[in-house]
Design brief:
The complex is a heterodimer of chains A (225) and B (301). With 225 residues, chain A is α/β, with parallel strands linked by helices. In chain A, 26% of the residues lie in helices and 31% in strands. In chain A, strands 2-1-3-4-16-15-14-11 form an eight-stranded mixed β-sheet, with helices on both faces. In chain A, strands 6-5-7-13 form a four-stranded mixed β-sheet. Chain A is globular and about 60 Å long. The N and C termini of chain A lie close together (10 Å). The mean pLDDT of chain A is 93. Chain B is of the alpha/beta class. Chain B has one domain: Aldolase class I (TIM Barrel), CATH 3.20.20.70. Chain B has twelve helices and twelve strands. In chain B, strands 1-4-5-6-7-10-11-12 form an eight-stranded parallel beta barrel, surrounded by eight helices. The longest helix of chain B has 13 residues. The chains are: A alpha/beta (225), B alpha/beta (301). Chains A and B meet through helix 1, strand 10, strand 12 and helix 6 of A and loops of B.
Chain lengths: 225, 301
């Protein structure tokens, strides 16, 4: 048994509501701290980069809090880094949300807006708000990722107008479809996992991701002893 | 696109209540029981609406919200009596994911802008409660349908979205609780005039009404109360709780029956929608009870 609960730093850059992420962590036995303190982020066992709101504001806040370089360092370390919603978009090279914004550049790729999604005659609203299925991308396996045990075609909860388009399709873990538009709904590159949906709002299936994270961290911690 | 089915729980003090045209509120039971049941049976989100809000204080609502948020992992919208950015922050901290605003933003529309800047547009639902007048126009009402505003709902809907509302919830007070179907014209005109999703509420009396407000009313989501609550009560009579000090309980004592409403479970509704080629989250796996804390707490209510 480990002596302490795995510690997860939820990066707080003063945008959005992080409460549900913290609740989900607590639910699966993770000690979560909402913080923008570099030392705490560095000392944690895993880092969650959540986010709602505008891309430009979020990047400006990360710069102001001087968190850009530490997030890039963590992405290159063995420590799990989990991006959620705006968090997955921030990992990219650049976004075209209200102009052009530079992202963290951890994953090479762009952030694009849903362009007139349609379903038959009906023009779909942007943002997409609601449940949508996630399916494995070509040649990917969820077995060693946070999606382990999640059924193919499972529903997750989305709230977004933009989606990521990684340059290297090899990082795409799952795809989803909104009207006539296919988009990347989660990515994995080494220790970095990030998803466009909100696992903490996606019922039992979403909580499975947090359970997988907790199990992974517990194994890591007991392995270092 | 998957249509969302959203149980709406109107809350007065510690109790779930339901009225007709927002009046004559009857006690139906403890909201936590209903919320848990809906979560486990395919609800896509939940709405908690404080029916008396500013009149009686908000502490019991906050308690119910935080209890719910600890155990229920789908989006929770909370509304009723929220007047300021600080009020909104308080319910979000208690565990709500979104807030629903009506009275305060009619009085001061800039609050929509301030709140969406502070918490993100996707957190802000503007609730529009409309009364159809004899000349065919629609007026927005404030204070849970108690107060006229002289605001035209269609202009208001557009303005609310321009100011930063992430979704609109549109309720016909004429039809609310009456079980005669949604106001399809009201819903459709608003849904077609704004770029954000519209949640239709007020009027479902049978399953086909839900279908109609999606196909003809063009709603992206449907808020349901009576049709689901009466179904729950019919299957879960005799909770053993004593509501005798808590207002109008005649309805509960008689056992739920309200001739205008053909009650239905969420799964019945979703099956019907799927049969009519309307997509919705349907094959939800049975949710494992991950912790028994809530059931213990509920047992002590």
């Amino acid at each position: 048994m480990s002596e302490h609960l795995p510690k997860v730093a939820i990066v707080d850059y003063m945008l959005g509501n992080l409460f549900s992420v913290k609740q989900a962590c607590a639910h699966v036995g993770l000690e979560a701290i909402i913080t923008s303190d570099k030392k705490i982020i560095q000392d944690s066992d895993a880092v969650i980069l959540p986010g709602v709101g505008a891309y430009g504001d979020a990047m400006a806040a990360l710069c102001r809090l001087d968190l850009v370089s530490i997030l890039c360092e963590i992405a290159d370390s063995p420590k799990p880094l989990v991006g959620i919603c705006l968090g997955v978009q921030l990992l990219m090279t650049e976004s075209f949300e209200f102009g052009r914004h530079k992202g963290l550049g951890i994953i090479e790729g762009q952030v694009l807006r849903f362009d007139n999604p349609r379903e038959g005659e009906r023009i779909l609203k942007v943002p997409q708000i609601g449940w949508n299925r996630i399916r494995p991308a070509v040649n990917t396996c969820w077995g060693n990722t946070l999606l382990r045990g999640v059924a193919e075609g499972e529903y997750m909860y989305f709230v977004h107008s933009y989606f990521v388009q990684p340059k290297d399709h090899g990082v795409i873990l799952s795809v989803s479809r909104y009207g006539n538009i296919d988009f990347c709904s989660s990515i994995q590159r080494k220790n970095v996992f990030a998803c466009q949906f909100h696992p903490e709002r996606s019922g039992a299936a979403g909580i499975r991701l947090y359970q997988n994270l907790a199990a992974q961290l517990k194994t890591m911690i007991s392995g270092t002893k | 696109m998957n249509i969302r089915i959203i149980p709406r729980l109107d809350i007065k003090g510690p109790n779930l209540v339901k009225g007709i045209h927002f009046e004559g509120l009857r006690v139906l039971g403890k909201p936590e029981y209903f919320a848990r049941y809906y979560y486990e049976n395919g609800a896509d989100e939940l709405i908690y609406m404080d029916a008396v809000a500013s009149l009686y204080g908000r502490n019991s609502l906050l308690e119910i919200v935080s209890k719910t948020a600890r155990e229920i992992f789908i989006p929770l919208t909370v509304g009723g009596g929220l007047r300021s950015v600080d009020d909104i922050r308080q319910v979000l901290r208690a565990g709500a994911d979104k807030v629903s605003l009506n009275t305060a933003v009619i009085a001061r529309p800039e609050l929509i802008h301030e709140a969406s800047r502070a918490f993100g547009s996707s957190t802000i639902v503007v609730s529009i409660e409309a009364i159809r007048k004899t000349d065919g126009t629609y007026e927005a009402y404030a204070n849970y349908g108690r107060e006229r505003t002289e605001v035209d709902v269609f202009e208001w809907a557009k303005q609310a979205v321009e100011l930063g509302a992430g979704e609109l919830m549109v309720t016909s007070i004429n039809n609310e609780g009456a079980g005669k179907g949604f106001d399809l014209e009201l819903t459709r005109r608003i849904a077609e005039s704004v770029p954000v999703p519209v949640i239709a509420g007020g009027g479902a009396g049978k399953i086909s009404d839900v279908c109609n407000v999606i196909t003809q009313g063009k709603a992206e989501a449907v808020a349901l109360a009576s049709i689901l609550h009466y179904n729950y009560i019919r299957h879960h009579r005799a909770t053993g709780d004593d509501y005798s000090r808590e207002g109008n309980i005649e309805f509960l004592k008689r056992g739920a029956s309200f001739s205008k409403i053909q009650d239905a479970a969420i799964s019945d509704i979703k099956k019907y929608l799927l049969a009519n080629n309307i997509d919705c989250r349907s094959s939800f796996p049975s949710v494992q009870p991950v912790s028994s804390d809530l059931s213990r707490e509920l047992a002590n209510v």
